[in-house]
Amino acid sequence: MKTVNYKNSLFKCIAVAVLLLYETFNLFSQDIEHPHGWIVPAWYSKPFVCEIESPLNKTEIGFGRGREEYTPMENGESLYVPYLNVDLGTTIPIYSGHIKDKWLFSIDIPISFHLWLDMKTNSAPVLNTDYRFAVGELKLLRYLNKTKYIKNISFRYAPLNHESTHIGDELTIRRKLAGYPITRVNVSYEYSEIAACINDPTNKRDDNHALKVGLMVRIPNGTNWYKIYPNEGDSIFNSKMGNLTEYYFEYEWQRKSKLFKKDNILSVLSLEIRNRAKYKYPTISWSEYYHRWEVIHSKHSRAWCFNLYCGLRIFPKFLKYEKNLGMYIHAYYGIVPYGQFRNTSNYSYLGFSFVVDV
Questions:
Q1: Rounded-to-integer distance, Cα 61 and Cα 262, Å
Q2: CA–CA distance, 208 with 274 (Å, rounded to integer)
Q3: CA atoms of 308 and 250, how far apart (whole Å)
């Protein structure tokens, strides 16, 4: 019988409560044109809506490709099953300021939680949970007035970030009872990240074309991205990976909606193309012929992933500080982006996303 770690559960509950309290306090904060001071949020160098791992608040329902790894699949069933994705996050400001009115800078702490739930099963089990935070990140922005094509440049540097992921208890039990060769993989690692952007939207309502490029570098500690414990799988799959980087390119276009003809409604298209490491342990498939689990090794160690959002960004009048809501069609193709399932290629997803940027 599985032992419940009450201390860990209590910590998670407290963390979520603090996050919700901060969001409530921050929701109606005073508008500041040039942020300056302690615990003052900076509205630049923020993540694009297409960024696959970000502290934006999202709720999504859609259809993704099912696999035996995480969803019970029977012969004759559709390959695509309904999933629910919930992201809860925030960026806690530490200090914002400026240097001779030329450079704006801020120091903050981004935190995010992600839940992936299987809506095909009656009990709607949690398939995976991701937790991310940075010890601190530095943001810089410089406005440029000499050209109409490049409005500003911005940078973001987070020297130490942590991610930890866990599959749900129900899925863990099902995999163990079914005799999967690998029950659970402990995905936990630290990394550094740096990004540069041209024409940062800065949460304004102007027509804009923004381009961003970013790099993540894994901080090695002997286990790389993950570790498989002996009681949860064969430790032979703990082979070290040489791929310690991820890099991505992002483009976000916005303009005032011609359909609604409102100054506070923008049409948005946001695309991320990310090249990331594919985890080396094999995928698993049930063989009806041999009546056993088969281990399928991958020949590839990296893969391109494509993440697209297309929809509307709305600035309600009751929200200040250029906070906004979004409604988007979301399409994704690439590695399964969640936790230990990042060893699985050819995952596709299409759904509807509601985003709260506060």
A1: 27
A2: 22
A3: 10
- Amino acid 257 reads S
Q: What single letter denotes the amino acid at residue 152?
A: N
3-state secondary structure of 243: coil
Distance CA 89, CA 26 (A): 13
Locate 152 and state its tokens: 């500003």
d(CA 249, CA 270): 11
pLDDT in tens, 83-126: 999 999 988 999 988 887 778 999 999 999 999 998 887 777 88
In whole angstroms, how large is the CA radius of gyration of the chain? 21
Residue 264 CA to its chain's centroid (Å) = 26
E strand or H helix that includes residue 19: helix 6-27
The predicted model scores a pTM of 0.85
Query: Could you tell me if 47 and 37 are in contact, meaning their C-beta atoms sit under 8 angstroms apart?
Result: no
Which bin fits 296, alpha (ψ -120 to 50), beta or left (φ > 0)? beta
